[in-house]
Design brief:
The complex is a heterodimer of chains A (288) and B (205).
Chain A (H helix, E strand, L loop, with lengths): L5 H12 L5 H13 L1 H21 L18 H6 L12 H30 L1 H8 L3 H27 L8 H9 L14 E2 L21 E9 L5 E6 L7 H12 L6 E3 L2 E3 L1 E9 L9
Antiparallel strand pairs in A: 1-4, 2-3, 2-6, 4-5
Helix pairs in contact in A: 1-2, 1-3, 2-3
Chain B lengths: L19 H11 L3 H23 L2 H18 L9 H22 L8 H8 L11 H20 L2 H12 L4 H8 L3 H21 L1
Classes of the chains: A mainly alpha (288), B mainly alpha (205).
């Protein structure tokens, strides 16, 4: 068997006392203690601390209802703690009554805890959500309303995205025209920010007929000058002195004329446009 | 030697050692079974109360703390991952709550107050009330326990917790370390310092 020096034993004495040493070391220390008075007394003092602590643990500390303070000298709890039953003779059942009182207090603490935990659980988020679903009438109503909203939104989206934009009278066509001012479908009014359409050279409408009286004629033609310079949707604004056939001949010539389109910030835009056509008779002065 | 062959006990505690019954109890508590919750409190309340009483040295405080501890236990039970035994885990909560309360209490100068009952219990100055028991006969034991209790209350909180968990509750170093949230080495040094003071106190008697 291995023998240990006192210094080595002292180092592990607390671990030995606490039962934390491996079994073989425990036995070696045990053997040393049986032979060495000094180390044994060290070990004994550790045990005394433990015993005193355990004894003091049984001394009640300010425990109303747990110990009868009037019965001083030796309380029932002390008597019970030290196993001296003879001392308990004066107050039979006192320790039991005191202990029951503590039990009662612990039991009431326990029920307080349980009811508090129940209350906390009842107020917790999951149980509140669960309660919301207890009355399904509301859920059905909410589901129906949600479905109706989603259906309506889908219908609107369908109208917008699946209707042909090419048709100018379709909702999508109107929306896309509104979204693009200055396009051919949504011509702008001329204002100071727009450079008006021009001609390279002043066009002449050929064979504009004379009126029956042979006086001057002025026609106003309205239309849209498109982004590529055509005159779209031409129509006569002022009343025409001509026959229908003559009107058509004039309008046919008008619609073949090309403009330099109006520009806004350098980009061509379609604009509403009114064009005045005039036929002037130049007469020589007849000298008398 | 009176204590004979002291053999290292099989540790009641190993990591992840939560037996089936305990695991089932925990599951039932988490699921909201009232009876299981009640059982859990019943099986641990005395242990919690005793530890709280040793750490705070006040019956009402200890009861109050026990209640707080169990509320905390039920609030955090769903997060209990069995990295320790349930008992050690509850000890840890007690220690933390007691530590917080200790700080709060100290700020309010509780240390300066001594109730008459405590004084009387500690020093035994009142005469016996004639029930035939010689005060001398009990003085030794009572005085020893009371002096030790005073010395214990005089220890720093961490040392007091360590020595109470070891000597009264019988926890292993590893369990104490988990309860206090420190390394085993720290536990050993806390125990050593606490014992040094308590042994010095005993020698004076």
């Amino acid at each position: 068997m291995k023998h240990l020096l006192c210094a080595s034993v002292n180092r592990v004495l607390e671990a030995y006392h606490d039962g934390e040493l491996p079994v073989e070391e425990q036995i070696v220390v045990e053997t040393h203690l049986s032979e060495c008075y000094l180390c044994a007394s060290e070990a004994k003092s550790l045990r005394m601390v433990r015993d005193a602590l355990r004894a003091s643990a049984d001394v009640p500390i300010e425990t109303p209802g747990f110990v009868s303070r009037q019965s001083y000298g030796m309380t029932a709890a002390h008597a019970a703690a030290y196993g001296d039953t003879s001392m308990n003779g004066g107050e039979p059942g006192l320790a039991r009554a005191a202990a029951m009182s503590l039990d009662a207090q612990l039991a009431s603490m326990s029920s307080a805890v349980i009811s508090r935990v129940k209350a906390e659980r009842a107020q917790s988020l999951p149980s509140r959500i669960a309660r919301l679903f207890e009355d399904l009438h509301l859920v059905w109503a909410a589901l129906a309303a949600t479905t109706a909203t989603v259906t309506a939104a889908a219908t609107v989206a369908g109208v917008l995205y699946f209707a042909p934009k090419e048709r100018s009278d379709s909702l999508a066509g109107v929306l896309s025209a509104l979204a693009a001012p200055g396009s051919d479908r949504n011509p702008m009014m001329l204002d100071k920010f727009i450079a008006p359409p021009r001609f390279e050279a002043e066009p002449i409408i050929e064979n504009m007929p004379l009126t029956t009286e042979g006086t001057d004629v002025m026609l106003a033609v309205s239309g849209v000058v498109t982004q590529d310079g055509r005159l779209a949707f031409p129509s006569l604004v002022s009343s025409s002195p001509y026959s229908v056939a003559e009107d058509r001949r004039v309008m046919d010539q008008v619609s073949t004329i090309r403009f330099e389109p109006a520009t806004r910030g350098g980009a061509p835009v379609a604009v509403n446009f009114v064009w005045l056509l005039e036929r002037t008779n130049v007469r020589g002065k007849i000298s008398s | 030697m009176a204590e004979g062959l002291v053999v290292k006990p099989i540790p009641a505690f190993t990591w992840a050692d939560t037996n089936d019954r305990e695991a089932a109890l925990i599951q039932q508590c988490v699921a909201g079974d009232e009876q299981a919750c009640s059982d859990l409190v019943a099986s641990h309340q005395r242990m919690v109360y005793q530890l709280a009483l040793h750490l705070l040295a006040d019956h009402n405080e200890a009861l109050d703390l026990s209640q707080e501890v169990f509320l905390q236990v039920f609030r955090t039970l769903p997060r209990f991952r069995a990295q320790s035994s349930l008992r050690t885990w509850i000890y840890r909560i007690v220690v933390n709550q007691a530590k917080n309360r200790q700080r709060w209490w100290r700020r309010r100068h509780r240390a300066a107050q001594v109730s008459l009952d405590e004084h009387v219990l500690a020093h035994g100055e009142l005469p016996a009330n004639g029930n035939g028991i010689s005060p001398d006969r009990v003085f030794g034991q009572r005085e020893l326990a009371a002096r030790l209790k005073d010395a214990l209350l005089g220890l720093p909180f961490d040392q007091r917790t360590a020595i109470v968990l070891r000597e009264i509750d019988g926890l292993s170093y590893e369990e104490i370390a988990f309860s206090q949230g420190v390394a085993v080495g720290t536990v050993k040094s806390r125990l050593a310092r606490a014992r040094e003071i308590l042994r010095a106190e005993l020698r004076q008697l």
